[in-house]
Amino acid sequence: GNSVTQMEGPVTLSEEAFLTINCTYTATGYPSLFWYVQYPGEGLQLLLKATKADDKGSNKGFEATYRKETTSFHLEKGSVQVSDSAVYFCALGDNFNKFYFGSGTKLNVKP
Amino acid sequence: DTAVSQTPKYLVTQMGNDKSIKCEQNLGHDTMYWYKQDSKKFLKIMFSYNNKELIINETVPNRFSPKSPDKAHLNLHINSLELGDSAVYFCASSLGLAGVVSADTQYFGPGTRLTVL
């Protein structure tokens, strides 16, 4: 079956530090992969996506590469800001548009 | 110009009551979803509808009944509320359905925080 595993948080970083949030998946077929961000009290917003192996999704300085050989889609950002503090969700979407979400990773960025 | 909207934002009620949450999307999408997010932030799909037709129905108690009067609306009615129903419920929508080459992005509403006392 399909599932997503992401690193547990919280992750606490200082401003301008490098961020990595690990995400691995198991899937049948050819899923698309997504990162969503949830700010306090809000719904999930799409951060980036990749639809096939070796695709790189990027947005607002965040990026993630769809690695089929390691079944991973790790999220990275070179220099985080306080405004990046949020919960980040890795998700897999199958060909029936059914989504499987990871458990979320809370990021705290301190000034 | 809210893309996916939900009402109410907060809902506090007593055990045993019946309540509804409404969802509307103005994106012209064909598919809508309901998710439940528990206190640990774990997000799980409950239902999906495509053009008013039920597509996904996960193992959700039959006290939960979705209703889609048209493809822009998907409401969630909950009967005989229980303490364990307390959670944040998110509505979402996406452009298409099955048989697509790649999954469509899902757009989420702001959520409804349900508290059952």
Cα gyration radius of chain A (Å): 13 Å
Mind describing the biggest β-sheet of chain B? 7 strands, mixed
**What are the low-pLDDT stretches of chain B, counting only 5+ consecutive residues below 50?**
none
The rounded distance between the terminal residues' Cα atoms of chain A is 41 Å
Residue share in helices of chain A? under 10%
Approximately how much helix is present in the residues of chain B? under 10%
Mean pLDDT of chain A: 94
What is the string of SSEs of chain A from the N terminus onward?
A: EEEEEEEEEEEE
Order of helices and strands of chain B: EEEEEEEEEEE
Anisotropy-based shape of chain A:
globular
Count interface residues per chain for the largest interface. A-B, 27 and 31 residues
**Outline of chain B:** globular
Query: What portion of residues of chain A belong to β-strands?
Result: over 45%
Computed structural class of chain A: mainly beta
Major beta sheet of chain A, specifics? 6 strands, mixed
